C-alpha cells in the first residue's frame, strides 16, 4: 500500500476505532495524525514504497516486584505509550533505520552482525535482534523503517523492549509470514540484550510489550513461561494508572539491583536449589535459624517477599476475573508495602539520605488516605526512579497537580492499559 493509500486508510472509520482502542478516545485523533506524519516522512526519506504500519507498546508492572528472576509470577500490562514505525522491504541486504525520537540514522549490513567492542547502543541492539532471528531459525532481510516513540525513557515502562518488539513484528511480518508467536519475540529480545549488551535481562519486559493487554506470566519454566491474558476492561472501572518519576538517584545502583536476585538465590542455595520458586515459604520458616546464619537476615526477608508476592499475583488475577476491583486495589497496596518493608528496594543504603521513591510514596499515601480511594506502589527495579498510582479518574488531575508541586512539573504521566501488544497495524484495521 503506497503512502497516499495509507493516508486514506488512516482517515477511515476502522482506523479511528483502532486508534481509540490503542490510545483512548481523547488521544485517538492526535495519534492518527502522528501516523500520518510518519508516513509522509518515510516517503520523503525512502521514496513512495509499499509501506506497512507497526506499533509496540511500553509496559507497566502491576505486581510481581522482583519475582521473575527467581522464576516467580508477575502481573503486567501494555500501556498507551508506544513505538510506532512505518516500514517497507528494500530488496537488499541492508536494514536502514531512522529513529526520530533519538535523532539517529543508521544502516546495518546483514552480512556483518557482530557486536561492537563497547556492546552498547541502538545499533548493537538491532544487530543482536537480527542475529537472534537467524540463531532461532527464522528468516531476515533488508528493509527500511522510520520510527518514533513516546515511551518514556528511564521510567520503568520498558522503552527498549518496546523498540525491540516493534522490530520483531516487522521482521516477522516481512520475512516469516507472521508465523512467530510473541514468546519467540521475547526470547529474541532477551538474546539481544544478554549477548549484545551484556545485560542480564529476563523476559518480563519483552513479554508484556509483545503480548499486550493485561497478562499474568509464570516463569517457573523460564524458557517456556506460561502466559495468560486477563480479559478485564480496565477502563470500565474509571481508574487511571499514573507513573511518577521521582528523580534519578546519584548512586551507582548496580550492586543494589544485583543483590535482590542473588540474596533470594542464596536462601534457595541452603536447600540445594537454584531459585526460590523451587522451595517453599514453610521450608524457610521451619529452618529459619539455620537459613539466617547461612544467607543473612535481609536475604530471608527478600525470600519471604517472593513467596507472598507470588500469592498476591494469584489473588489479583482472581479478583480481576471475578470483578472484585476493590480487592485488586488492596493487593496493589499490599504489594507496595511488601516491597518497602520486606524486599527493601525503595532506597539504597549507600546513600540513605536520598529517598525520592520513599518521599513520593509517603505523599501519595497521604493523598489516598484523605480521599479513601486508590492504591500505590513502587514501580520496577526500585532504589531510585519511579512509583505507580492507581486512582479514580475524578481525582487524577488533583493528584497530578499535588505530586508535581512537590516533585516538579512534568513528573507525572497518566496512562491506560491498551488491549494490543506489538502489531502490524494494517492487519488489525
Description:
There is one protein chain. With 429 residues, the protein is α+β, with helices and mostly antiparallel strands. 47% of the residues lie in helices and 19% in strands. It has 15 helices and twelve strands. The chain has helices at 3-10, 13-23, 28-46, 121-135, 159-175, 182-196, 204-211, 254-270, 281-286, 288-295, 297-321, 325-343, 356-371, 396-407, 425-428; strands spanning 52-63, 73-89, 94-99, 104-109, 143-149, 214-218, 226-230, 239-245, 375-378, 386-392, 412-415, 423-424. Strand 6 (214-218) and strand 7 (226-230) form a beta hairpin. Helix 11 packs antiparallel against helix 12. The longest helix has 25 residues, at 297-321. The model has no long low-confidence stretch (mean pLDDT 94).
List the helices and strands and how they pair.
Blueprint (H helix, E strand, L loop, with lengths): L2 H8 L2 H11 L4 H19 L5 E12 L9 E17 L4 E6 L4 E6 L11 H15 L7 E7 L9 H17 L6 H15 L7 H8 L2 E5 L7 E5 L8 E7 L8 H17 L10 H6 L1 H8 L1 H25 L3 H19 L12 H16 L3 E4 L7 E7 L3 H12 L4 E4 L7 E2 H4 L1
Parallel strand pairs: 3-5
Antiparallel strand pairs: 1-2, 1-12, 2-5, 2-6, 3-4, 6-7, 8-10, 8-11, 9-10
Strand content: 15-25%
Estimate the helix proportion, in percent.
40-55%
Q: SSE order, as H and E?
A: HHHEEEEHEHHHEEEHHHHHHEEHEEH
Q: What is the number of beta strands?
A: 12
| Average pLDDT for all residues | 94
Please, how many helices? Answer: 15
